[in-house]
Amino acid sequence: MGDAPTEKGDASRYVGSPLFVGSDIIDEDFAAIRDILLAGRGFDLDGYKDRCIKRRIAARIRNLNCPSTASYIALLADNDAEQEELIEALTIHVSQFFRNPSTFRVLEESILPDLLRKSRGRSELRIWSVGCAGGEEPYSLALLCDELCTSRDQVSIIGTDISADILKKARTGLYEAHRLVEVPESALVQYFSLEDTKYRLNSHIRSKVRFFRHNILQDRRFSQIDLILCRNMLIYFSRQEQERILRSLAAALVPDGLLVLGRAETMVSDSRELFSCVDPTERIYRKRIDEPSPLDV
Ligand SMILES: C[S@@+](CC[C@H](N)C(=O)[O-])C[C@H]1O[C@@H](n2cnc3c(N)ncnc32)[C@H](O)[C@@H]1O
Predict the structure, then answer these.
(1) Is the N or C terminus of the chain more exposed, i.e. has fewer CB atoms within 10 Å?
(2) CB-based contacts of 91: which residues, under 8 Å, 6+ apart?
(3) Which domains, ranges and CATH numbers included, belong to the chain?
C-alpha cells in the first residue's frame, strides 16, 4: 500500500489533516479497495476500465479530505455507508428522456410497432433497460408504448441499475427540466406536472416500469426478453467484460430478440457471431437464431 495505515473511523475526522493530493492510485491500494468492495458489496472493480475508476477513487479521497490512501482504505474497510458512497462516486448516471432522439424515432416508427404486432397472441412484450440510471430510458419507452399500444397489448418494462440511490430517484419520477429537453411539448403537458422547478411523471406511466437493483456483471439475468436497451454503460467496462455482458444479454433475449447499444458502443470481437446488425447508425442488433446442435434435436 502507498502509506502507513491509520486508525478506522468516519470521514469527518480528516477535516484539517494534511490532504491527499494525488490523482492516481497505486496498484496495491487499488487491489485493497477492490477486495473490500467485492467482499462487502459484491461489486467487482476489475471489470471496469482501470484509468477512469482510479481517477474517481482519487477524487473521492480528496473530497473526504483523507490524508492518505491508506487511511481511506482503513475507513472503507468497516464502513458499509462509505462502500455505498464509493460505488455511487464510481458510477455515472447521466441520462435524459429520449436520449439520442433518432434512436427513439426508429424505435417508435418501426421496432416497437413490429414487436407489438408479433407479441399479439402471446402473453406479453418484454423490454429491459439495463443501466437505466434515473429511469429516463425505461420511462421514455413507456411513453412510446402508451401511444402505440391498443387495449389488448400487454407490455412489461423492467429498468435495472447497480445503484440503489439512483433507483430510488427513478421510482419517484421527478425530473429537472434539462432531463426533459427532448420530450415533445404535447407529451410534457399530457404526462408531467410541474412541482416547484421540477417535473413529475404521472403515476399511470410510472406504474408501467418495474425497477430492480441488478449488477450486470454477476446477478442472475432476466430471460425471454424481446428488446434490451443497454446504452452508455458498456463503455465503462474492459473489453473482456463487454464481451461477457454481451453474451449474457444474448442469452436473456428470445431467439430473434433485439439489442440497442449506445451511439459510442459497438459489438466487440466474438460477440459479433451472436448478433446481426439491423441498424448500424442507431446500433440496433438482432440476436441470431440459434442453430440447433445435433445434440438438441
Ligand atoms: C451513463 S448511465 C446510462 C443511462 C442510460 N442507459 C442512458 O443511456 O441514458 C450508466 C448507468 O450504468 C449503471 N451501471 C454501472 N455499472 C453497472 C453494473 N455493473 N450493473 C448495472 N448497472 C451498472 C450506472 O449506475 C449508471 O446509472
Answers:
(1) C
(2) 162, 163, 166
(3) 11-90 (1.10.155), 101-287 (3.40.50.150)
163 CB within 6 A, ligand 1 = yes
> What SS3 class is residue 209?
strand
Minimum-distance ligand 1 atom for the alpha carbon of 217: 19
- Ligand 1 pocket, 94 CB below 6 A? yes
- Closest ligand 1 atom to the C-alpha of 216? 20
pTM for the model: 0.86
Over the stretch 18-75, which tens digit does the pLDDT of each residue have?
A: 455 556 788 899 999 999 999 998 888 888 887 778 888 999 999 999 989 999 999 9
Q: CA neighbours within 13 Å on the CB side: how many for 1?
A: 15
* Best residue for ligand 1 mutational test, from 41, 87, 162 (most atoms within 8 Å of Cβ): 162
